[in-house]
Each structure stands twice: as structure tokens, then as C-alpha cells.
Amino acid sequence: MLSNLLVLVTYGAVVLFPQMSALSVTWMTILAAFGLALSETVVMGIMVIVQRKDPKCGSEDLNTFEWIVYGATSTIVVLIQG
Prior knowledge:
Blueprint: H1 2-16, H2 22-53, H3 58-81
Helix pairs in contact: 1-2, 1-3, 2-3
């Protein structure tokens, strides 16, 4: 989720500020990759905690929410890219 938002911000910056240098875009992409690594770890930890509270369907609900947000932000990124 967080990684898609960071990628969205990166592409948004490229569209809104075309005068940005390639180095700036590269650093923003690197930050997006680090955001992906961090958010995936945090989300998986939260899923384990939620699953312990509700072993029947706790992690499934959180996983569904994650994929909905992932799909929505991915769609926005694709629309920005053209």
C-alpha cells in the first residue's frame, strides 16, 4: 500500500514538475522501493497480530483490504503514466 503511494507520488512529481532532473526521479524511485520493503514487513506483522485476535477470518479481511488499496493505487499510477 505504502509503496504504491510512493510510486504514485514519484510519477505525480514527474508529471507536475517536468523540469525535475533524472537524479531526483531516481532517488524518488529508490525511496519507493524502500517503502515497499518496509510496508510489506509491517503489513505482514499486522496480519499476524490480527490473525491471532480472530483466527477464523482476521487476516483474510486485512489481506482483502490490502489488495483493494493496492489495486486502486495501481490503477491511479497507470492512469497517470498514460
